[in-house]
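We modelled each protein-ligand pair independently. The example shown here corresponds to the zinc ion entry; the chain sequence is given first, followed by the ligand as SMILES.
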Amino acid sequence: MLVKDIEIITMREGKKEIIHGDVFIKDKIIQEIKPHSEKSKDKIVIDGIGKVLLPGFINCHTHSPMILFRGVADDVDINTWFNDYIWRLEKNETPDDIYWGAKLAIAEMLLSGTTTFLDMYFHMDKVAKAVEELGIRAFLAWTVFGVGEKIGEKLKDSVNFIKNYDGTASGRIRTVLNPHSTYTCPPSFLSKVAEIGKDLDNLRSLHLCETKEQVEESLSNYGKSPVQICLDTGIFDKPIVAAHAIHINEEDLKVFKEKDVRVAHCPECNSRYCLGIAPIAQMVEMGIKVGLGTDGAASNNNLDMLDEIKLAAILQKVKLNDPIIMSNFEVLKMATYGGAQVLGIENELGSIEEGKKADVIIFDFNNAPHLNPKIDIISNIVYSAKSSDISHVIVDGKLIVDNRKIIDFDMKKSIDEVNLRSKRLLEQKGELMVEY
Ligand SMILES: [Zn+2]
């Protein structure tokens, strides 16, 4: 495959670099980047005139099947959202609901430029099936809770999934150890998870310090902050992605730096539920690895990384009352190379470099009034672009989205399934869904 005559934001070594040329892709790999030449024998040729190529977005924190609950609880506080809606709706979810939810979520992610996502949910074998079918790359975690019934059994399911699914879908799926959070997993359970995790080389992830109350409760219940609990139980002893990390102090940040705790920043969900603004600028300054996440569509309400990119910059400026902080390049890096660092895959993904895996997205600036003039194409992508400007998506060297269409994907069927299943789940909970 050849993408010819195109502007390339390379993100090489996480640095700012824009070049113009041709990109050759073969055997899943970016083989060559060189000055444009008209000669080509390649089978698939994408004309890059007026277009911009960059690494695919990496969504470091989501719950893909939760698109089934998109729009169920917009204007509520986080406790109402959990207790009155999510926990009650999830009770009736079937494995097939999860499959169809994940499938449509992946379609949404691909069309908005995400080529890798870290997903936490249940029945992850069903999500793996959707990943396999749609050709995206994913880090999948079968979440475990340390409260409720059948805890040990569920932990076994999760560990079996980690062992059986790592490296599947031609290597596009990797698995993750995922205790849900410190507020749903008591310290004794986290110690057990850390013990089991000693023998596993997989990445870890959990929700951390989303609300002030979580930190206060942790201090009053255990005399320790959530970060201290993770440190003491051994949860931080292997590479881990902490989602949110909003209510953390200077001491916590030192722990992050020392233990290489990486952060998945989810600005949109955090803002909507007034959870606070994570100290991202400070983390970047300290050299803590930061990526971006959408969280699930029940709290966002989309899986569009462009929203997160833009908001990540704006919120830090508001938080610190400093318009200079958090440059357009810095936030675009978080969505690409930074995300790869968070997942520990920066040697193979996250930038456009010869020898790296070909996960590539293309923005079409032609016929897009909002993307012109092209004074600073990074600025255009961060502040002006819409995901509908993404014309092509390539994952693992394969063209998945061609001129805004996902190849070999029955969109109507997926949309119909999700509407039906979502309606049933709301009815089972006793909520009415609008008829259409
Ligand atoms: Zn989450």
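The chain has two domains: 2-55+355-403, 57-343.
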